[in-house]
Amino acid sequence: MLTECQDFSTMKIEAGTVCRYPREDHTLRWVMTPKTVALFALGLLLLSATIWLARSKPSSLPTWRQAPVAVDGVLDLTGWDFERDGEVRLGGEWEFYWNELLAADDFADPAVISRRTVGNVPNIWSDYAIEGQKLPGFGYATYRLNIKLNDAEQELALKIPMLSTSCAVMVNGILVARCGQVSEQPEDAIAQYNPQIVRFHADHEQLEIIVQISNYLYNSGGMWYALDLGTERQVEALHDIGLGFDMIMFGTFLFMGLHHIFIYIQRRKGKTALLFGIGCLIGATRLLFVGELFILKLFPNTGIPVIAAAGYITYCGGVLIFVLYLRRLYPNEFSQRVAQAVTIVSGLFVLLELFTPLHFYSDIIIYFHLFMLLVCLLLLRSAWLAVQRGRDGARWQVFGIAFFIAMFVLDIGVTTFYISTNVQYTLVSYILNRQLVLLGLFVLVFVQTIVLSQRYSSAFRTIENMSEKLIAQNKMKDEFLTNTSHELITPLHGVMNMSQSMLEGARGHLNAEQRHDLSVIVSVSRRLTNLIHDILDFSKLKNNEIVLHKREVSLQAMMRINLEVFQHLIGDKPLRIELRLPDELPMVYADENRLQQILYNLLGNAIKFTEAGSIVVAAASVGNMLEVRVTDTGIGIPADKQQLIFQSFEQVGAPVSQEYGGAGLGLSIARRLVELNGGQLTVASEAGKGSTFTFTVPISKGTTGEYAADALPLEREQLALHSVPLPTGAKEADCTNTILAVDDDPTNQQVMLNILAGEPYRIVTARSGEEALRLLDGPDSFDLLILDVMMPGMTGYETAREVRERLSLTELPILLVTVKNNPEDLLGGFSAGANDFLNKPFHAYELRARVRTLLEMKNAAEIAVQSELDFLRAQIKPHFLYNALSTIIGICPRDPKEASRLLKQLSFYLRGSFDFRNYEKFVSIRKELELVEAYCSIEKARFKERLRIIYAVDGAIHTLIPPMTVQPLVENAIRHGVTKRMDGGTVTVTVRRRQDAVEIIVEDDGVGITQERLPELLAEYREQSGVGLYNIHQRLKKMYGVGLRIDSAAGRGTKVSLRIPLDSEVTSDHAEGSVD
């Protein structure tokens, strides 16, 4: 809150009040800085230019084309071109006929012409004298002006301002405009302002303009303003400029006034903004009733008395508000007596304007002008005094008030003494014929805006500095509290966990006394831990730092999940917890985590103060609220203490506190959390008979527990089966994994869909655990299950247990999403089969990271299995199948039996290659040799006498070997060894025992391998198809520590050998299931 201090040399801070910065004595002195010199030089220049323009003659302005002046009722425009030189103001000497309303035909009478006099326009006729007698303010008269044009046949226009209270304008004898009704009798005259633009055709080089005027309202009649003559475009532009000027100022004043009034509404202590806002609104209102009289465009029938009264009242009221404003702004420099005098005089004139005739108060307004001039001089003196005392903004005030005084004096001269007659053809003539005081007011308001903005900025800087200090101190307090709490919690957890492990026998047998002491340590540690958590929550509630994340929550699911935790709190007490929750219990709209905390506090309180008996949790719908009751059979609460228990750090009494412990924060926190969720917490109790705590929470609109758990409507089921749309430009094939997201809240589902929408995943949603199990039993295969814990019907834990009975941890990882992050909750989730946890509310990047990690884990497991399968199947090459089938087809016509035998061998070979039901790491050596024989039979049919196979196998050996180990070696010997020679060759397969190992040798007498190429055969980067020697070599090294051994020379064949250790354990474990 910003307010003004009586002494700005000090700073006083009270509740919500901010004053100015403290100033040192040396800053209060006036210092002529370059900025100050420039400011006063600018003001002096503006004032000098205004005086010069006001006093300038036509010859003084060479750049402004001088228009002729009417002389003796004639205006000579024969040398004036409207298109070239612009419009003309019809000022000067007009013919004047007092107490006569004449038309064009009347001037043919010489007697009428003989009564003519000449009067200056614009002016008031009370300044005229006929036969030495001044004319009265009331009456009627005719003005006549003859204009000589430079050309005939012109389209011209007249801008007719507020000529008088009633008028009629005639051009060449034709009535072109009327304002009100001109009459010789006051009772027949109708006063009405009607500024307008009239258009006419000048068909002669001579124009006669006759203006009839009658006035019975003001004490000063006459032609107050001059007409403007020019083309239609020029006259309309002149009108639009004036109207636009008024509207710009009106909008500026209105906006600034409302802005500062709203500032005051928000901070009611200082009235500076209020006074400034009211002053701006008064200025905006005045603009509607002066100048182009915009009020007549809104309300055309507005009478002259209303317009005049509004103009004078806003004038007097504006003066009063401005003086009061400056008095508030600089209370030590502006005299209270001056403010009181202005209040009295302004109030008196306002009353006169309200309750006296127009001609009376309009005649004495000159005295208010003089009083206002005196007040302005006093304000200027006070502003200068404020400058000398170093008040912020005082220099601007001097400039603004001085400019306002200058404009005010000129305005009085124009409107009262009609000095514009002397300057109407200068550059400033247009400005002087406006309400100059409005221009001065505009500058003055602009200055006040600068001053107030400086004050607000200064106050805001003070507030910011203080706020930064307070925030820093509060942050230090919070950090101290947090750090201290963490420092306390860490050793407390260590003490509690070590004591608990000793109670469970980790350090050996304990006697009864030791067990009792350790139980006390665990209990006290748990109490201290809960106390620290309560203090942190209490601090957050006190500072309104608790942010609720409301959603649909099932109270049934929450109670079922937390029941085991509450049972753990009971310990050895003969207590039972009963849940009396109807199946049709509606969902509630609350923060799930805080609702759980409320129940935890209430049930924990009931368990603590109940030694035996029961604790009943019941719920029922009451209107649009769900009423939850926690009833215990504990010690009860006396009637005079029932409201006291909800206060912070309060319990029923000192004996209770000593016996049961605690800090008295649990119920206070529970009540605040209930209220934040939109409910109320009450208690009904009787000492010695137990207590019933009842709290309410809003019911979620549109769903109930039964509806959400059991009866999913068709549209929801269809929604659940729909996957999220793929990102723009993505294809179904781009989706690398399929995710099943299970959550009963459609909003949470949509959140997960949106977060994962940019990832290459296909996402399927489900609304319950039952539906998720149905989808898992369906045809779709899923790579990840995202499972919400808190769901109606089957909870997330129960769903996870069902999934784990069907699929392993690597086959379908499970990510549990929950607001519960207690160690007991995490343990329960991992026990149910979860792979990972994600706490609500979560960040998008955290969900994506955990999903990506689990999918990579599953993909890595699949890749490991798939690589094994690829290894086993890689030797099945298209060209081998093609050659084998071609050979069989060629044999079939001449030897069907041989073709049949070969087909059987091929089928056996293929069946052996693809028969990996158990993905075994070992097979019997006999099975591997059968696969070799089947392969060799097919190859011998192709190459006939060019290929010879010799088996040297010890039949007593029944060890196990890695699958697909020997067959690729034989294939390599046939393809790259013997068949490369024109006359073929021999491949020898040897299996024999060598001490504690089985040696397998595949030897050929083919083309051999050069010594340079031998190292490349076992290199990883070597391009190859099929299993390859490198893959076999690596598998053997991984299993046995020794890989393949290759001996070869160009033209001498190749010998590949390997050794399989005789491992009795491996043999016994796998022989039964692997040997046919």
UniProtKB/TrEMBL annotation:
Enzyme class: transferase
Reactions that this protein is recorded to catalyse: ATP + protein L-histidine = ADP + protein N-phospho-L-histidine
Residue intervals passing through the bilayer: 37-55, 247-265, 272-296, 302-326, 338-358, 364-386, 398-419, 431-452
Superkingdom, natural source: Bacteria
Residue stretches making up the Histidine kinase domain: 483-701, 969-1064
Cellular component terms per the entry's GO annotation: plasma membrane
Domain Response regulatory residues, every copy: 738-855
Modified residues annotated as 4-aspartylphosphate in this record: D788
PROSITE patterns for this protein: HIS_KIN (PS50109), RESPONSE_REGULATORY (PS50110)
InterPro entries, sorted: 7TMR_DISM_rcpt_extracell_dom1, CheY-like_superfamily, Galactose-bd-like_sf, HATPase_C_sf, HATPase_dom, His_kinase_dom, HisK_dim/P_dom, HisK_dim/P_sf
Pfam families in alphabetical order: 7TMR-DISM_7TM, HATPase_c, His_kinase, HisKA, Response_reg
Cross-referenced CDD domains: HATPase_EvgS-ArcB-TorS-like, HisKA
Enzyme Commission number: 2.7.13.3
UniProt keyword terms in alphabetical order: ATP-binding, Kinase, Membrane, Nucleotide-binding, Phosphoprotein, Transferase, Transmembrane, Transmembrane helix, Two-component regulatory system
A GO molecular-function descriptor: phosphorelay sensor kinase activity
Family (UniProt): In the N-terminal section; belongs to the phytochrome family.
Protein's UniProt name: Circadian input-output histidine kinase CikA
Source organism phylogeny: Bacteria, Bacillati, Bacillota, Bacilli, Bacillales
